[in-house]
Amino acid sequence: SVMDAASNQDGDALTDLEEYRTQTNPNDPLSQWRVVELLPPLSSNELRLTWPSQINGRYRVMASLSLTSPDYQPIADDIAATPPLNEWTAPPVNPSNLFYRVEAYWD
User: Fold this and answer.
1) At 6, phi and psi to the nearest 5?
2) How does the average pLDDT of the chain come out, rounded?
3) 2, 24, 79, 89: least surrounded by Cβ within 10 Å?
4) What tens digit of pLDDT does each residue of 55-93 get?
């Protein structure tokens, strides 16, 4: 089959264009872009997220009170890429009660 921006050769959640941008393999459903580290800092009630970062990428951190809720709200936006990894620390608002996800986008 033909690969284009809207195709999804491996049937995962990302289009082939999104896989190209995140530098994952568009032919391998196990090749995924994801948060690689989730750590609480040694002091305070903060949480640190780390994910792969690509040149020209921008990132948005989203949070929800429920893992199954589609109601994720942006809590940090327009985070510039810092390859090879980005790191973001949640404010000390009791982050253990939230579910997080990171979205990648390009200008």
Assistant:
1) -95, -10
2) 83
3) 2
4) 888 999 999 988 887 789 999 999 999 999 999 988 776
